[in-house]
Specification:
The chain has helices at residues 57-61, 119-131, 137-146, 148-155, 167-176, 182-195, 199-211, 216-226, 245-268, 271-279, 282-287, 301-311, 320-329, 403-414, 416-430, 437-447, 459-468, 484-494, 505-511, 535-550, 563-569, 579-591, 597-607, 620-631, and strands spanning 10-12, 32-33, 38-40, 49-56, 67-73, 77-79, 90-98, 101-102, 107-108, 111-112, 333-338, 360-365, 375-377, 385-387, 498-499, 559-560. With 639 residues, the chain is an alpha+beta fold. Among the domains are: 10-115, Immunoglobulins (Immunoglobulin-like, Sandwich), CATH 2.60.40; 156-279, no CATH class; 418-474; 484-637, no CATH class. Helix 7 (199-211) crosses helix 9 (245-268).
Length: 639
Amino acid sequence: MHKTSNYLFVLLALSVAVSAAAQVPGEVTGLQIDGSGTLTWDVTVDADDYNVYRGSLAGLAAGQPLRCHGDEIVGTSFLSAENPAPGQAFGYLVTGEGAGGEGTPGNSQGSERYMGGLCDPVMSHHMQLRLGYGLDEWTESRMAALGLDAYLAEQLDPASIDESTNTTLNDLLAVLEPPDSHVEYFQSRIVRSVFARRQFEEQVTAFFDNHFNTDFFEVFGYFLGIYPPCNDQGQPPWCDPDYPNEAIRVGAMQQFNDSFAYRDMAFNGNFRDMVEQMSLGPAMMIYLDTIVSTGGNPNENFPRELLELYMMGVDNGYTQTDVEELSRVFTGWRVCQKALANLDDPLAPCQAFYWIETGDWTANFDPTLHDCTAKTLFSGTPHETLIPDTCDGLGQPTAAGVDDVYLALDAIFDHPSTAEFISTKLLQRFVSENPTQPMIDAVVAVWNDGGNPAGIGDVRAVLTEIMAQGLLNPDLAGSKIKTPWEHVSSALRATRGNTDGISVLLDYMTRMGHLPGFNDVPTGFAEDGAAWIGTNNMLERQNYGRILGFYDPVSLPEFNSDVMGLLSDNGISTAPGNAEAIVNFFIDRFFAGSVTEAERQLAVDFLNTDPDGVPSDYDEARIREVVGLLLGYPHFMEQ
């Protein structure tokens, strides 16, 4: 133990092992620690680098394994500066790693020390979960071929990843996109999470979809009035003979269009682009009432959330006066259908015959409904911004008022609170729920670098720096909790599962309370793990794992796991007497080996007994049941 002399330091070492092809590094000797928390050790023959493992004394006494604490350390020293809790101590183990592999953990009292996950597989597993939705065979092989650093670089450049040969993904998306309903939109999101090779692209898209949350029922409800049912007063094409399906389709398309735009802008644009897409997208304009905001009667719903939730953070540099001024900025904006060539022109004419004309729904600015007087944002601060009067000589609104929104968005984007708030939220999502101030400062510095390809607020540059701030920190592995969406997707990927994106899944996602696009509060779904840890939620996750393990590709092609195929293709015999190897395979696959000896043995004993607990040879059904058991372990909730 370091820092104070009255703490116990537990010294662990390695035994020597030999490989026929190459020498495994021998025992690490001379392990010491100084008062500053710096570990040192002797140079070890055949070691190219070293791994450091750590565990608390209380954890070790309770059977918790040592965890990876320092990965691939070049040299013979490592700073472990964190103090243990008062009255506690840390135990350390250092292993050598070389061409022959990693040295064994050695022996204590004649028995080999138990290691709950070696650094290399733990870090690969960690990266797969933070950059995407966990392990599948394409990701596994790609990461092995490239190495962690190159795999990360590739995921940060999704256009470089070839999806053209991804038959499963493409065949499903050909049916689901563009969606005819929000159910199909939901399906396409799940399908992308499970089958896409561009995993980080999907995670980032999901983040911004949730950050800029809209509610399908609000959007759909608006279009019910635009596409009414047919009755005595209306005949096709001026009504919907298949009511309410046209309103459902158009409503779903608005959320789909935003999601599609965020997917592109996150890697080819900046945050300012995203905010404009969201602010003037029909889904948000309908959801937070911009479409009813009028000069003389401005609506504050969207302006308040724009400042509080989407750009600056709660009470972070703006006042109620700013909300009021911003509400006047957004007066006069409506949605209508326009010709495809005019979708980006808010002053272009709407299509009067939208039922029979080719076009799409978009933002429209009506100057006659706009408050054309001057507005001031952040008055009396260094960030004060004047949005000028756009009235004519008679005090009447003009088309020049269309620029008020762009000027206001520029001013909020330039405010330092925006860079800090979004940088912090991205760090919390992808690295740590408690980022340090130096981490935040480093990301903000990249945000403010106008030399980035997309300028200030370049999202890809920001994401790249965020990954550099802790993705490869072993202490953060398993420190976050998966959302239900991540949980169900990662279980499918880990079991070589198949899904149509709705069968079984829609029911479980509903019960777990995580249906993107159906959240009626502007805050979106919680990103912090504590919000998803509860008795009911954990029970539903366990039930989901059990049912996924149960269904095979023949019994339910729309939702299943290929448990037996995975074992066969990886050379794991399913003949009686091989329970330990079967369990070890799935523990390595699901958790990178990071379980206790007791948890491992529990699964082995389960496999070797029948449902009544009587010792018995296992069959395929029992193997599937043990997979369901493992998917219900608390470790599977971690990322």
